[in-house]
Amino acid sequence: MNVISAMKTRAVKLSVLLAAALLATGCGAHEPGTVSVPSTTQQVQSAEAPETAEQNDPETEALQTSATEETAPQEPQTTEYTSAEIVCAGDNLIHSPIYNQAMSRSGDGGYDFSYAYENVSTLIEQADLAILNQETIITDKYPPSNYPRFCTPEALAEEMVRIGFDAVSISNNHCLDMGEEGLVSSLQFWKESYPDIPVYGAYLSEEDMNDIRTLEVNGITFAFLGYMEHTNGLSLPAGSECRLTYLSQEDVMEKQIKKAAEIADCVIVSVHFGVEVTNTVSEQQYYLAQKFADWGADIIIGTQPHTIQTMEYLEAADGRSAFVFYCLGNFISAMNDPYSMVEMLGRITVQKNLSTGEITLSGAEAVPLINHYDSGYRNVRIYPFSEYTAELAAAHGCAGTSYEFFQKVIDDNIPGEFLAEQ
């Protein structure tokens, strides 16, 4: 039997079966005055008769099976996702009033930095991945020192890890403040004391730099890269094995970001760029942020201006959506410019489609912070702006500050769509 004949035969048999069902309905199968329209499956069943050759016909059985399958409920198609909430903080700039107060608060002759961060520690702890720009070199090889050549006790790193930071960028203009030896000492300290924390932006060697730092969080692999505009006129000695990447080295940055995109789900670039103490984003910042996105960066974390700047989604060359915080401002400092007292935490959620591996970004927002100290740079500490008061602002040790001033800087530089609920 050819295909056309088979189709015709099935059509005839279906007509016979339907006719039989309708005949049964009209011959007293139901109470007078009622009408019943059986389903396709029910129609086939009601046409059953005493055993005949037709009943056992394989083609009829196939037709019955097909009708049953067509009316069976379909299982819903589901796609599984995983996500991670990221929080990023700006320059952790440890001036002498901060390490001196930590020393005076310690009961064992060491340093207790907890007071300075206690009002914001919960915001860090709650994140799945928290990232810090550590602006000052951390090592006990040298005594603590202040601006312009910073050095910070190793006890600070312990406090940063305790409150929940998971990754640390040291790509900034102060990474050579203690010279090559200070940089090597700091990198070795981090590596030996906290081997599970990615520390990036400065490296012990070419091989170390090419070993792109990654971290898996909730099934999402993150890669971390860091770049700086300059190092305050300081440079590594000739023949040094250490490696830094400056913003002028576009070919190196492009190569690294593209490599990171191949080995990770989400590429994070920490970049020290922009003009100090201005809320205005420079042309260089706009240019490089777009380049980073086009090369494969997903999240760009800007620092250096020491005050807050705007943020936005970027469309990358391949159609992806990336996000840039142009500048988070400081995390803590004892600077004396009122604009530097306004800071923020960046927050964004990364979601991964487990079926396709696709990454999407959502929930981007900024949490405003105020860097506060009393007169004489005493008691330096950070507050979420939602917990800050006009009374505190009136007692701020930095001249030119007020609650209204802080509110205006926040309103002028954090777009409403990205302002975290207070």
Give a structural overview.
- This protein has two domains: 3-71, no CATH class; 81-418, Purple Acid Phosphatase, chain A, domain 2 (4-Layer Sandwich).
- With 422 residues, the chain is of the alpha/beta class.
- Strand 2, helix 7 (155-162) and strand 3 form a beta-alpha-beta unit.
- The model is unreliable at 1-55 (pLDDT under 50).
- The chain has 13 helices and 16 strands.
- 32% of the residues lie in helices and 24% in strands.
- Strands 1, 2, 3, 4, 13, 14, 15 and 16 form an eight-stranded mixed beta sheet that branches. Strands 6-7-9-10-12-11 form a six-stranded mixed beta sheet. Strands 5-8 form a two-stranded antiparallel sheet.
Structural class from helices and strands? alpha/beta
Described by the principal axes of the CA atoms, the overall outline is globular
The total count of helices amounts to: 13
H and E string: HHHEHHHEHEHEEHEEEHEHEEEEEEEHH
The overall pLDDT average reads 87
**CATH class term of the largest domain:** Alpha Beta
Helix content: 25-40%
Question: What number of domains?
Answer: 2
